[in-house]
Amino acid sequence: MRVHADAGPWLLDTEGRWRRDTEVTGPGMEAPDGTGGRLPRSPTVSCRHGFVQPLRQRRRKVRQALGRRNRAGTGAAVISMSTLGLIGSGHIGSTLARLGVAAGLEVVLSNSRGPETLADLVAELGPRARAATPAEAAAAGDWVVVTVPLKNYRQVPVAPLAGKVVLDTNNYYPERDGQIAELDAEETTTSELLQRHLPDAKVVKAFNNIFFAHLAALARPSGAVDRSALPIAGDDPEAKAAATRLIDLLGYDAVDAGPLGDSWRFQRDTPAYVVPYAKNPQGRGISVDDPGVSADAATVRAALAAAQRG
Ligand SMILES: NC(=O)c1ccc[n+]([C@@H]2O[C@H](COP(=O)([O-])OP(=O)(O)OC[C@H]3O[C@@H](n4cnc5c(N)ncnc54)[C@H](OP(=O)(O)O)[C@@H]3O)[C@@H](O)[C@H]2O)c1
């Protein structure tokens, strides 16, 4: 079943209750500028070429909408002792940071250029957020999300992630990451590469199959009729349970797609990749101005089952 996102995003209020953000008008990410109109039509992009132009405009709209959400939603004290560490603070990392702060988590962000370059984002996120080095973010997190371009996965710090639940958002784009023979030959998956790099961490694949703007727009409280589901894959049941708790806090149900070796079922160019969350899918791709539509667990399971390799 698909339900159209017909109201603004949800937020946690100071009592920890979810409610609609009435400051954001229209479906999903439409018209966060309050004009009541739709965002201008932008060129269509296919998944094969990544999420490209006009992303600058799209990012601004997402920041505006989530900024309102954060201002209205701060104060939730649901799980204030839990910390989300982020290695990578770009499109996905900053979106997860905003959702994490809105859910009452402490958030530690990091990137490759140094904490000082994240000052504006930290200021926007408020007192629950701080910037640090990747090693510090890794050490601080109860969950740590690795969300860097795949080509840089070997730069992720190893020692501070020992024993930790590490959520991996990475996708393989050879035009960005270079050719990786094992992936081209379908002998492994991106998350298994990260798991090999982090032998003592518990890697769970998550958040890789949804466009960052849809990740922001489709978050809903537990039990909402239009809540979406996200697939996860991992080899450690406890780590998958921990990942499921995080995903729930951030506004999504989780669907277990199996071990890391099965994570190809929601990698790029599969039916579960970005398209289930698009209101107007463009084949296997989406338009960057697509407002998003919820995809429940049954929809995600069906897409996972339809995946083919080779
Ligand atoms: N964009 C999406 O909608 C989307 C959706 C699902 C999955 N993904 C996947 O998720 C991953 C991240 O995507 P994104 O779009 O968020 O990328 P992005 O906007 O380019 O951001 C990448 C982030 O990673 C940081 N980074 C790069 N190398 C690093 C390193 N060695 N150590 C620490 N941080 C490092 C960058 O920091 P600096 O800027 O300082 O270099 C930046 O903050 C990619 O694998 C992508 O394919 C993306």
> What count of domains describes the coordinates?
1
Q: What are the low-pLDDT stretches, counting only 5+ consecutive residues below 50?
A: 1-55, 65-80
CATH superfamily (homologous) name: NAD(P)-binding Rossmann-like Domain
- Trace the largest sheet across and list its strands: 6-5-4-7-8-9-10-11
Description of the structure:
By secondary structure, the protein is an alpha/beta fold. It has a single domain (10-24, 51-305), classed as Rossmann fold (3-Layer(aba) Sandwich). The chain is built from 10 helices and 12 strands. The strands form 3 sheets. An 8-stranded mixed β-sheet has the order 6-5-4-7-8-9-10-11, sandwiched between helices. The chain has a two-stranded antiparallel sheet with strand order 1-2. Strand 1 (10-12) and strand 2 form a beta hairpin. Helix 1 packs parallel to helix 2 (91-102). The protein binds NADP nicotinamide-adenine-dinucleotide phosphate. NADP nicotinamide-adenine-dinucleotide phosphate is lined by residues 51, 87-93, 110-113, 134, 147-150, 152, 155, 169-171, 173, 208, 211-212.
Secondary structure elements and pairings:
Elements: E1 10-12, E2 18-20, E3 44-45, H1 55-73, E4 83-87, H2 91-102, E5 106-109, H3 119-125, E6 129-131, H4 134-140, E7 143-146, E8 165-168, H5 174-177, H6 181-184, H7 190-197, E9 202-205, H8 212-217, E10 229-234, H9 237-250, E11 253-256, E12 286-287, H10 297-305
Parallel strand pairs: 4-5, 4-7, 5-6, 7-8, 8-9, 10-11
Antiparallel strand pairs: 1-2, 3-12, 9-10
This protein binds NADP nicotinamide-adenine-dinucleotide phosphate.
NADP nicotinamide-adenine-dinucleotide phosphate binds next to helix 2.
